[in-house]
Amino acid sequence: MRRLILIVCLFLPAWSLPAAAQNYYSEVDRYLYPQQNRRTISMDLRNANMNDVLKMLSQQSGMNFIASSEVSGLSVNLYLDNVPVEEALERILAANNLTYEIQGNSNIFMVKRVERPDIELMTRVYPLRHATIPSSKLNSTLSDFESASGGSAIGGDGEGIVSAVRGVLSENGRVIEYARTNSLVVTDVPSQFGLIESTIRRLDVRVPQILIEVEMLDVAKDTAELMGVKWGNTPVAFSGGSKRGFSPFNFDNILEDNIDQTGRVAGAATDFIEDQDLGNADKRYTASNVSFEGLTFLVQFLRTKSDTRSLARPRILTLNNETAEIRISTDEAIGITSSVTGADAGT
Prior knowledge:
alpha+beta, Phage tail protein beta-alpha-beta fold, three-stranded antiparallel sheet, 27% helix
């Protein structure tokens, strides 16, 4: 009887401990005796079935496994020496392209094969610094401003760079425009990204800008006809060269050079030629002449006319090799009056 009372007294303090104290002692035990919560396993297997390996792990760790049908046909070669059970499970499943799922605290692990696509794809985001994608908010803002103000500066809309990126994608690649950050989201095989990045880097460059200033004038018709260049009556005059000879007395050789260097006719008697008439032999030819002495012009400037009225002097900034359009327009209502006359018809 005395012995029974002693045993009861030994167990009463544990029952009377509050929950906080029990948790405290459990944490202390876990700290002092970590080997109790970190079980290890040693295995040396060759061509072992995966179901048998999972059964051994279940017996050592207390975990329950449910394997899919595609797992049962796998064979495993492994050697483990004093390895924690959890780490051994992770490494064995990863080496065989397997994974597991667990729901809540059920302690039941469903082992299945990792579902991976047949082709490994990669996704990268490329923010554009200079080019603007077609769906960007900036393009829509410029379009609204153009409609409201009547002027526009059409720049690069990025359609070219998007088309170029689509052109270098593989058959499994795709590109998505992200308008909020003016970026391209590209998905493709990893080997294709070198060409994709090179294409984007060469096309996304700063384009020179041009500032155009235009002055619009309201000019009368008569004044407009006076504008421009007024030429003289004979701006250009031309006179041909000449040659001394004995035409029409030498029809047989009228075009030949029948005067020698001494100013005489070759083979002719000297009595028939007077030296003073022929003059020096070096002057038997005269050069042709082109004269611009009559070229005069006058430029009329419209700003000097008092009947010229300045309408506007707009400025517009556009990109190089891009179209820029400036318009001054107003919306006017045009009334149309029509009358219809009808007659009753009877049979």
